[in-house]
Amino acid sequence: MAFVAYSASITALLPFNRIFSGGMGKKWNRLSPGYSARLRAGPSALSRTSSFSSAAAGKAGGAPPLPQLSEADKTLPIYTWPHKKKPRVCILGGGFGGLYTALRLESLLWPEDKKPQVLLVDQSERFVFKPMLYELLSGEVDEWEIAPRFSELLANTGVEFLQDRVKLLHPFDHWGMNGHKQSSCGGTVLLESGLLIEYDWLVLALGAEAKLDVVPGALEFALPFSTLEDACRVDEKLKTLERTKFGKDSFIRVAVVGCGYSGVELAATISERLQDRGIVQAINVESTICPTAPTGNREAALKVLSSRKVQLLLGYFVRCIQRVSDVEASGDATVIREGKDIAKQNSEKYVLELQPAEKGLESQNLEADLVLWTVGSKPLLPELEPCDKPHELPLNARGQAETDETLRVKGHPRIFALGDSASLRDSTGKLLPATAQVAFQQADFAGWNLWAAINHRPLLPFRFQNLGEMMTLGRNDAAISPSFVDGLTLEGPIGHAARKLAYLIRLPTEEHRFKVGLSWFAKSAVDSVALLQSTLTKVLSGT
After folding, report:
1. CATH entry, 222-328+347-375, from 3.40.630.30, 3.30.1330.30, 3.50.50.60, 3.70.10.10
2. Which residues does the UniProt record annotate as the domain FAD/NAD(P)-binding (predicted)?
3. Contact, 308 vs 268, CB < 8 A?
4. Which fold has domain 88-209+378-455?
């Protein structure tokens, strides 16, 4: 790659209302390892914001006038693609949708002159297999197993990886498949580092982030659980509580807000970890847990939560979260739980004010050392700046791009969207859930449809096939309800083994699957030997 001057013929970029990302974490301003070595010095000063002036009005009935770059913006460095004539595919986001689309493109057979150059952009240096984040808390997996580096996964492919954050986007394809007559590309993407990327085809797979700003105090005092960084923070907090709280009268109290799959899996995992050293309380606005889950999964989860003495507070919503020290300062003598004045408790504790969502329940206040938030999410694809020109992506109320059945963004034939970034309905008109299973299947179709579009072949409509639902319930416990066998639910150790095998098969590359498979086999062998030794010791000591 090299820095080159920004051509005066390139049209201006339309800024988003807010910056968005394609992965996890907060460290946006660093590039991927080795990135600087592949760049030579560019302009001494890079413009980080774009200023615009209106272009001359077009002819009547022609294309709308194009915004033009200011003099400062003309010095933006441009990402240099290795080949000038081969198609350029830029993928924003390295989750299930983005990474697996890139790998799918790599696996297809291409005419030599049509094989695209693929650039994957993500803010994180690691891909994260999110369904197994819970195993980090239980110690069942290592970080490298479920969060390998992109550089390792893509080492033997033609896919280039760039660790950066997306700042601005300007598609040209709303004027037709071949773009505007002044441009030979499908659009441009500006990264926060100042690097500009011209693309022919764009894939939006930016994922989503936890939505904490809906309840007062949640953003300040609750921890989400949707990224690798989130999981590490929760693990460190639990380790701190385990070190500082010991003894009969020093219980660790954990409050989990939300009893969907994520909340239930968290509650089951943490209650198993704490055992008799703590108590987990799970809050849900519904009158049951996992209301959309298969009956077998829900019953298996209820059985496990009951056996681990998880307290379920169903039919409640959280009105606000306060720090105990703030309650003490306010002098609120009404905030009492189990006959104890919470204001006299440790200042690291928190108070959750619960309000009933159903008749017959009373308001109550809950005390916790750790508050985990699993309710709600918001896509990372923001809206474009309002303007009178047809530049905006069609977004729904949640900020997802509206797509047709081939996963192309409506009105933008050169842009595909999938996963949390896409709004797509099934054959019954129901909005597809934002799950890893959906994104995984969409990536396969997105890769194929990119191949078809580049080779001028018909595109395939996406059809989601529900293969079933799985959930972890602890180190040796899980529940699986496959869709192809009605009424069947695999529970306990059998469900746990089946779930791990299913996820092992879905890991990104053959090399990584092989390494992780060996690691899990070795751990299983060690655990089996330890269990055998323990059993023999008990038998011998009994005799």
Report:
1. 3.50.50.60
2. 88-443
3. yes
4. FAD/NAD(P)-binding domain (3.50.50)
